[in-house]
Fold this sequence. Notes:
By secondary structure, the chain is an alpha+beta fold. It has one domain (2-105). The chain has helices spanning 2-26, 30-40, 44-49, 56-61, 63-69; strands spanning 52-54, 71-76, 91-97, 100-105. A 4-stranded antiparallel sheet has the order 1-2-3-4. A hairpin with a 2-residue loop joins strand 3 and strand 4. It is elongated.
Amino acid sequence: MNFIKKLNVKKEVIFFIVIAIIFLLLHSTPSTAIRTKVFFMGYPNAAVTSPIIDDEYHNEVDNDKFAELNAKAYTLTKPPIEKATQGELRNYLVRKFGFLHFAEYYGEG
Length: 109
């Protein structure tokens, strides 16, 4: 009986380690953070296939704000189309916390 408890605890620890590793990998670079965000927004095809480039316009215009946030803007060159508004989900802001990157939709403005 004691052996089974130890086995279950080992399985739980391994499960949580695997989840932590996956999380770290999905947030290790700006592009993987954007792809993860787009995937979980419900656009898996765009998350995998759309090229990502620096958003030079927003990075220049909002330079001071981005420096304060430790962030940088990126653009999907083949963005997904939002179902409700038919708008392109093109621009994303990636903030860096330590060695992790987190993306959020930035909009057009």
